[in-house]
Amino acid sequence: QVQLVESGGGLVQPGGSLRLSCAASGSIFSIDDMAWYRQVPGKERELVARVVSSGSTNYADSVKGRFTISRDNAKNTVYLQMNSLEPEDTAVYYCNANIRTHWSVWISYAYWGQGTQVTVSS
């Protein structure tokens, strides 16, 4: 009933920029926090950045000053602007959102996107 669809991944050279987008659709009543995670093979998925409904944000130390998370509540969309990319940023990036549906107004559930590959290489 709820889908998160990501876009914007790809191959970029070190020092370059990418912008990821994630649009939520379906029977949405409201969205609490939205976030981006990333995962590389053999490692646990890690939080990259989170934005709550009020607009407050938090970031992993490794991306502070380089990445910016934002959201458009009218479009149920979250963005991740990634600048000064490094090879260590190479990973599959996943969108996450805690969503209250019209069938579950009082409880939010976590939903995930399908993931988008970001590769930073020369």
Structure classification:
mainly beta
Oligomeric state of this protein: single chain
Rounded mean pLDDT score? 96
Separation, N- and C-terminal Cα atoms? 40 Å
Unreliable parts: none
Radius of gyration: 14 Å
> Largest sheet, if any?
7 strands, mixed
Percentage beta strand: over 45%
- Inertia-based shape: elongated
Number of E strands = 11
Order of helices and strands: EEEEEEEEEEE
Helix fraction, binned, reads under 10%
The number of distinct helices, counting runs of at least 4 residues, comes to 0
Q: How do you describe this structure in short?
A:
The protein has 122 residues and is mainly beta. 0% of the residues lie in helices and 62% in strands.
Overview features:
single chain; 122 residues; mainly beta; 7-stranded mixed β-sheet; 4-stranded antiparallel β-sheet; 11 strands; 0% helix; 62% strand; elongated
